[in-house]
Design goal:
By secondary structure, the chain is α/β, with parallel strands linked by helices. It folds into two domains: 77 residues, Roll (Urease, subunit C, domain 1), CATH 2.30.40; 290 residues, Alpha-Beta Barrel (TIM Barrel). The strands form four sheets. Strands 1, 2, 3, 4, 5, 19, 20 and 21 form an eight-stranded mixed beta sheet that branches. It has an eight-stranded parallel beta sheet with strand order 6-9-10-11-12-13-14-15. It has a three-stranded antiparallel beta sheet with strand order 16-17-18, with no helix packed on it. Helix 2 runs parallel beside helix 3 and helix 5 crosses helix 6. The longest helix is centred in the first third of the chain and has 17 residues.
Amino acid sequence: MLCIRNGNVLGWKEGFKRKDILIEGKKITGLADRANAEGCECIDAEGLMVLPGFIDIHNHGAYGHEVMDGTYEALNGMSAFYASKGVTGFLATTSTADIESILKALANIKETMERGTSGAKLLGANVEGPFINPRFKGAHREELIIGPTAELVDAFLDASGGNIRLMTIAPEENGAMEIVKTYKDRITFSAGHSGISYGGAVASFENGISHITHLFNAMRGFHHREPGLLGAALDSEKVVAELICDGVHVHTAAIKMAVKLKGPEKIALITDSTMATGMPEEDFMFANNQRITVKNGEVRLKDGTLAGSVLTMDQAVRNMVNRFGVSLIDAARMASRTPAEAIGLGAEKGSIETGMDADLVLLDSNLAVRMTIVEGKVVYRA
């Protein structure tokens, strides 16, 4: 049993209040102004804020590792690094590649989930590509982009052990919406890397698309006579939109606009992190033998195309508060509760309440991570 004492604890209804948190095993068993901690190991959180742990649902790598390595060591190394940044759960995101490589990466995600990780918990897979529009490929390799089929989706699900929680798809591609309608009860589908029209996007939301891959990026720009996927996403109360708030991918004004229009309940902060995250700025060999260069906090291919980021979730929260004028409560919501709900885990994760998983991050007054607790276990101390 564990007791977190004297922390300023974030509750979604009441905001920050000084409370004690009782934890038994993996679960929060009580919150009180002054808890009876007899028989508990106590952690003094005096002067610290206690937030629900961050959940990063879109990331490709960190600290020299990437998902497409297809090894336990890669995912476990990522998990340890993410934990140091306040992340308690993450989806490992695959990239467009040959089918054999995707299947290998998905099988490794399944095996790693069964084995367990030393830091942040691996919650499942996010499949980004190969079912995307080649005209909006971003850093994905065009020659490996293919159309979606039931046979491939079944193969991906089988390899992952049914652990695909999120899948990007361009709704306008042949067969895409048939796939969404067929599998929407098993997978959360995200519209992205897409040039779909506004009307087509709205129709896709009605038929099973409930998520948007990195809003503003890899989609047609907003036009007042054809708002496209971007306009439909900003206008809809149905879909959750991912946001990369590193100050590189999306302009400050666009970030502020998105938050105003959709609110923290429909924005999920993501990192879209790469193997270069947490490493010195230099050249790296990215998935599928693509060389990326990291300079001034930007990750780009040789032709200048953005290829993910070096953003971390704690920095994303700090950016939202310090650079983009969002309250800490709203930023925390976008980093924990909203992504948990988006992938079907809102009943277990993303809130500090009795009965919820004991996933916590302790921050100091500078919003720096001092401790990360995953399902009742301290996995990082500053």
